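ok here's the first one, seq then struct tokens
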Amino acid sequence: MSDSDDDRAGFRDGLESSEGDPRILAILNAVLSAAFAWLLVWGGSIIGMLEYGLTNVALVAAGLFLFTFIMSRSSTS
């Protein structure tokens, strides 16, 4: 039974020491930013705040991507 506890501690240590592949993090950030931007622009178009279009989605996605990129860099320093 103690072997299972040792495996958990080793797994936890591995997760805490891993910084991840920055390419995967950038791709995940881009995909999630685009999805959230689409949702924000779609919701904004429903209430009449934004016009729904690819340009607006791309601009909001770029802003979200940069914001999350800067925030994640400042928290790791």
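and now the second one, same deal
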Amino acid sequence: MSLAGFFHGIATGPRRRRVLLTPVGLLVFGGTLVIVIAGGLVTDRVLRLPALLPGVLGLAVGIPVLLAGAFLCGWCVIRFRKAHGTPVPMNPPTELIASGPYAWVRNPMVTGVLGALFGLGLVFHSIGIALIWTPAYVLIHWIELKWVEEPELARRFGPSYLEYKKRVPMFIPRLRRQRYKQ
């Protein structure tokens, strides 16, 4: 069984199992964020990297970027909750979400996390967080999305997901949006 098949079995399985596995997904997500932040700070120290935008400049640029990323993540969570699901792959909504930030990009949660981590790297003046560990984190997510999440969504939602995927970019919105209609 593929990883996409494994997650599909959970996502379409009994509600009780999905609800019980949701905290596991949250712990994995939270743990990866801790690894990125701690790894970045350790990398800075071990490699003796200079401060990234030292002083007030790092805070002045980093805080708005961090808040924008956090806002985007929060907006995504609200969209998932309204659809009676969570962003955790073990307990997703039963409908394809293609409105709100999902009308602009297929993975706004990853875009938001990227912004929040990059902003945090600026706030901590950390080259390790902003320019090493955050891009690596996004690359790993891209691989997971391509190999696991997108095949699972295609299996669960069929042609509607494939059409959505054709029209909506993965992470960065187009200047001119091709609106997806469900």
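notes on #2: DSSP finds six helices and no strands in the chain. The mean pLDDT is 93.
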